[in-house]
Write a structure and sequence with these properties.
mainly alpha
């Protein structure tokens, strides 16, 4: 079990070839394809949406497999959140470019990740690796990965039945997910402060 300090030595191993790592690597490989489909005219939004759905499903299953079969690894601790953040970044860029999301909203979420990235050298100096993903952060990511396909399906100018249904649902998930995402970032900063403060007090 993780002690919440980033030193998850009791369960994480140095294994590379695990099913969760393979799923995370496939998710990462899909990011440029997603961007091509959604940003390069003629657009292939349907394929991009299905890729997002598959990425969200694999994010769920790689964690489930890791827990069930004890396939936690240090590589997985890096790959899994990296894939999540890259999909969030890629989808935010796509939505802003296609007028599906305000720029300020995207900048708030991207800014959160930029700030958290700045804690990595701080943790390293204190003898810690990246902290484990908080449950709240996972919940936020799931909400956003639910929201993004709906927002892509309901881009401005579309007035079909699917868009009419998905538009309010997409904004609801995006609002809730964004709030959780920011709050999880705040909790992460608090945890970093507590850890580094404890190290300085020794």
């Amino acid at each position: 079990m993780s002690d919440g300090s980033g030193r998850d030595e009791s369960t994480a191993t140095d294994r590379i070839w695990t099913v969760p790592n393979l799923l995370s690597a496939l998710r990462l490989a899909g990011v440029p394809l997603f961007l091509y489909w959604v940003l390069h005219a003629p657009y292939h939004d349907g394929w991009a949406i299905w890729l997002l759905i598959a990425a969200g499903a694999s994010d769920y299953f790689d964690g489930k497999i890791a827990r069930k079969y004890g396939q936690f690894s240090r590589l997985g601790q890096l790959l899994d959140p990296a894939a999540d953040r890259l999909y969030i970044l890629a989808t935010l860029l796509a939505l802003v470019a296609r007028d599906g999301l305000p720029l300020w909203w995207a900048l708030a979420l991207i800014g959160r990740d930029v700030v958290l990235a700045g804690t990595i050298p701080v943790l390293k100096r204190a003898g810690y690796g990246p902290l484990p993903v908080h449950f709240l952060g996972k919940a936020a990511t799931f909400n956003l990965l639910y929201a993004f396909p709906m927002l892509l399906a309901a881009l401005p100018g579309r007035d079909d039945v699917l868009s009419t249904v998905f538009r309010p649902l997409g904004w609801a998930f995006a609002t809730w997910g964004s709030a959780l995402y920011i709050w999880a970032g705040v909790l992460y900063l608090v945890q970093v402060r507590q850890l580094t403060k404890g190290e300085r007090a020794r």
